[in-house]
TrEMBL record, chains A, B:
Transmembrane segments: none annotated. One of its GO terms (molecular function) is DNA-binding transcription factor activity. It comes from the Bacteria. SUPFAM superfamilies: NagB/RpiA/CoA transferase-like (SSF100950), Winged helix' DNA-binding domain (SSF46785). It comes from Sporosarcina globispora. Keywords: DNA-binding, Transcription, Transcription regulation. Residues 3-58 form the HTH deoR-type domain. InterPro entries: Carb_Metab_HTH_regulators, DeoR-like_C, DeoR_HTH, NagB/RpiA_transferase-like, Tscrpt_reg_HTH_DeoR_CS, WH-like_DNA-bd_sf, WH_DNA-bd_sf. The keyword Transcription regulation applies. This is DeoR faimly transcriptional regulator. It holds the Pfam family DeoRC. SMART domains: DeoRC, HTH_DEOR.
Length: 250, 250
DNA sequence: TTGTTTTTGAATGAAAATGATTGATTTTTG
DNA sequence: CAAAAATCAATCATTTTCATTCAAAAACAA
């Protein structure tokens, strides 16, 4: 059974049942567990599903809320710490860019509401921003379903209208040699441009992003400062030599 | 049974019954007590429920719904009728503009999902559109908190990139002499422009909008066709002489 | 064909989830 | 009130699932 067939099958089962177990997929497709795992990993990277222990789950198309499992996890606590620190960097009068992404969303409750202007391409941020009565501008363009982000030519064009004091970006990979990377080419271009339009750029990343490489390159390490939570001595040294890095400790 | 499945199940039972006993959950899920306990602990950490001795209780957080349930239920039926008819006008291959507004939102479930392209300035539409996997473009610009619409210079500028087969607009006032009106000048400009970029334009309006005048003028009656629900003979005559009007009857 | 890349399946140890057990705590019962 | 019963948190061994690695198989190109 060919890879795209399996992927289609998995997605179909997922659509029907909401959750699938790896063992069931192994039986149905008559392939090895390894192969199914690889399939799930790929599909998750493309934001087609959420991997869970023992299988995979359909991801709810909801525009906000993280899922039940992640809401209670340590992971969210860490994200929130990073986000809170990042939000603390914003001063009254700033105009800032908020990249699409869940870590960045966590910044919003901590932003100084008064006198700041926010520009974003993240659909998941809007309601939180409006709720706080923050002056918000949205990029125009194509609304991508999987990542809930505005992308495309239109988005790049609308970015041109703005300049930022600070921008806050999410990335999928941080690597000493390959810099900041993300799976989607279009999103990479937006991130790139936003960084170039900003006086200061910050990348928000938990420790799982380090030494990872995703498909599309955003830029070299020195183009942005990194805000993260944990990092062992060795890695910290590696990265400190290439860019500014702030480790937020618990 | 996978962890998220159990979590979902627990929450569902909780929603129905208010409280659940641990033993019942053990029986239903056919897992051990330990596991259920762990589940409850996690869910409590995520603020999904309150643990009580012997089980768990629902947490009446801010689960309030759009509270105007009573008054609008009849109104909603009417809106939905209008919306459904309007959606029926859209054909595969069309590119359409959806104005911000609650009546227009009701169109989305009835739109032919395949092969259409939607452009909108209505933030309230996005999640419904994405859920239906409809190709969606959003105008860029300022996000207005009260109306959840994108407005401003940026929005006008991004409109220029598009042309539409059909556009569907909401208005606050329809008047034989003063035409279509809406309270906000900025929104009026957007609506105006969208209509001018569209081959055919439709205004969705329930009967309460007729003979009303709001502050900012969008255009004369003849610039768009009207889709409404009820309209007495006399009025219908008045308007039919000035534009196309479709009365959707129950 | 031959050499190269991609895909696959198996093996490994690490990580996570589970179920049973313990003794402490709370609730119920007499 | 005190004893009994039920529920609890904490711990540990076991099982399951996981990521990673590597070599074989398959698909591909020259």
């Amino acid at each position: 059974m060919l890879t795209p067939e399996r992927h289609k099958l998995i997605m179909q089962l997922l659509k029907e049942k909401g959750v699938v177990k790896i063992q069931d997929l192994v039986d149905i497709t008559e392939t090895s567990e390894s192969t199914i795992r690889r399939d799930l990993t790929q599909l998750e990277e493309g934001k087609y599903l959420k991997r869970i222990h023992g299988g995979a789950a359909r991801l709810q198309g909801k525009l906000q809320e993280p899922s039940m499992s992640e809401k209670s996890s340590r992971n969210l606590q860490q994200k929130r710490q990073i986000a809170q620190y990042a939000a603390g960097l914003v001063e009254g009068g700033d105009s800032i860019y908020l990249d699409a992404g869940s870590t960045v969303t966590e910044m919003i409750p901590y932003l100084p509401a008064k006198e700041i202007v926010v520009v974003t391409n993240g659909l998941m941020h809007i309601s939180a921003l409006l709720e706080r009565n923050i002056k918000t501008f949205l990029l125009g363009g194509f609304a991508k379903e999987q990542t809930k982000a505005i992308i495309g030519r239109g988005a790049l064009a609308s970015l041109e209208y703005y300049r930022f004091d600070k921008c806050f970006m999410g990335v999928n990979g941080i690597h000493p040699q390959f810099g900041y990377t993300t799976p989607d080419q279009d999103e990479a271009m937006i991130k790139q441009k936003a960084i170039s339009l900003s006086r200061e750029a910050f990348v928000l990343a938990d420790n799982t992003k380090f030494s990872e490489i995703a498909f599309a390159k955003i830029g070299e390490l020195h183009t942005a400062a990194i805000i993260t939570n944990e990092l062992d001595e060795e890695q910290q040294e590696t990265y400190t030599s290439k860019t500014t890095i702030k480790v937020v400790t618990a």
